[in-house]
Amino acid sequence: MNWLKSPFFWFLLAVLTTAGLTAIGPEEKTLGENVRIVYLHGAWVLTAEAALALAGFFGLLGILFRRERLHRWSAALGRTGIVFWVIYLPLSLWAMQANWNGLFLSEPRFRIAFIFAVTGVLLQMGLAFLARPVFTSLANVLFFAALWITLRQADYVLHPPPSPIFSSGILSLQLFFVGVIFLTMAAAYFLTRWWLQKQS
Predict the structure, then answer these.
(1) Burial of 35 (0-12, 13-18, 19+ CB in 10 A)
(2) Are the C-beta atoms of 139 and 77 separated by less than 8 Å?
(3) 64 three-state secondary structure
(4) How do residues 41-60 score in pLDDT, each as one tens digit?
(5) 170/174 Cα distance (integer angstroms)
(6) Where are the domains of the chain?
(7) Chain center to CA of 135
(8) In the list 7, 91, 146, 179, which could disulfide-bond 41, CB 3.0-4.6 Å?
(9) Which of these ranges, 20-34, 67-81, 131-145, has the smallest mean pLDDT?
């Protein structure tokens, strides 16, 4: 049973568990069962942002302290963050269709997400080809800084506030959402561990 030792197996298990839990999540008065898509969409993008933030953080530490291990964590987290960010896009489209009855591709935050997804994929491919740890760490620092600044300046047009569930005041929804976030974070951790194995 070597597959039980594979981080990729546990990544897939965490993703499937997240999907299964979300499918039976509590409904909300206004959105009804469509709030379940919001759980998944919200947890996924938060996990992507957290992975990219950590990629930048470990990258900065790697540059400052010149530690190869920190560079490898930055590279692995950067790849994980982009994987989650890219998958977040179809989840965003699904949430639009379910809750807005249409696809608003010109919505500012979706447009930004798409641009950074394309840029991020190309960047990670280039960094993997170059295989220069310091360049990878520096790129991860700059990428997250650009993403953070751009998102903070973006308008909310046809898009709910940053955390509609946490601002709902409904404890059951908030606790469930925290549980979904925990599972997506676990999935990101296992995927990162898998990338680290691939590097060694």
Answers:
(1) buried
(2) no
(3) helix
(4) 889 999 999 999 999 999 99
(5) 6
(6) 38-199
(7) 22
(8) 91
(9) 20-34
